[in-house]
């Protein structure tokens, strides 16, 4: 599986339509999406899943009003239950120099009953692109549960993949089973296991809200300075784990702390707000921001780390009410 910063042929997104994902706050979401599409389309094709003719027409109207160049957008009438294509969409790999899709299963984070459309997205994407679909033995794996450096190392959490009782994706799978899966299907022969994810994470510990490779040797890791915050102990433990971690060549990774925004609570629920949920597209690094004093610090830090493309903040305070932000809703297709 190539690293996210490698050149893309396209980004896969799904147009928002399920109002239950943002109860009471759906109205601004299509406009947030339009800005995301506009930014991504400046450097690559956007393959947009719109389900049917009516939703395609809605998306076209919104994108046109937002100034998006529609010649950079492909509309695919592939139906979806939700729009989190990082998890339900195609996970692209290279096999012998050719591009293929690994057919991991999706079961709505082992939590929700409605995923029958989402689980067929990889199959339908492979058909649309006329590329191979590689069987994975029925294993469940979401794109947000993994992060790779493209050289043989992969980041995951124990909370997401190894919890024996909560949101169990693959009953009976051991640590060794996952490591074999990553090696065989993603070419990742070295697994770096972290512990727990962040508070409010509906997925039960996805890595893409916690820690991300930003180069083959460098990882940004969320850090919480307030010892009274729910994230403090878990993030401190993960920092200690990374201090003794090794990359595929036996070297230690460089670890850069990334601040956390102040807690966002809506309707009594802690939301999974994190700057680590950024998305690397060809034209920019898109970073969720939350009208928070730490926004400026996070953007400045990431701008120092990514010198080959601009770092752009995308307002995500409404978006995160859907329990995900920029990385959760996007999936890269390598060139």
- Cα(first) to Cα(last) distance is 12 Å
SSE topology string: EHEHEHEEHHEEEHHEEEHEEEEEHEE
Classified in CATH, the superfamily is L-arginine/glycine Amidinotransferase, Chain A
Mean pLDDT: 98
Radius of gyration: 18 Å
What is the name of the CATH class?
A: Alpha Beta
**Count of alpha and pi helical runs:** 9
CATH topology: L-arginine/glycine Amidinotransferase, Chain A
Just name the CATH architecture: 5-stranded Propeller
Number of strands: 18
- SS class: alpha/beta
Helix content: 25-40%
- Tell me the number of structural domains: 1
What fraction of the residues are assigned to beta strands by DSSP? 25-35%
How would you describe this structure in keywords?
335 residues, alpha/beta, L-arginine/glycine Amidinotransferase, Chain A, 4-stranded mixed beta sheet, 3-stranded mixed beta sheet, 9 helices, 25% helix, 26% strand, globular
Task: Present the secondary structure layout.
Blueprint: E1 8-14, H1 29-41, E2 45-49, H2 53-65, E3 73-76, H3 85-88, E4 91-95, E5 98-105, H4 108-111, H5 121-129, E6 133-140, E7 147-148, E8 153-157, H6 158-162, H7 175-186, E9 190-194, E10 211-215, E11 218-223, H8 232-243, E12 254-259, E13 265-266, E14 269-270, E15 279-280, E16 285-289, H9 294-305, E17 311-315, E18 331-334
Parallel strand pairs: 1-2, 2-3, 5-6, 8-9, 11-12, 16-17
Antiparallel strand pairs: 1-18, 4-5, 7-8, 10-11, 13-14, 15-16
Structure description:
This protein is of the alpha/beta class. Helix content is 25%, strand content 26%. 44% of the residues are buried. The model has no long low-confidence stretch (mean pLDDT 98). The protein has a four-stranded mixed sheet. Strands 4-5-6 form a three-stranded mixed sheet, sandwiched between helices. Strands 7-8-9 form a three-stranded mixed sheet.
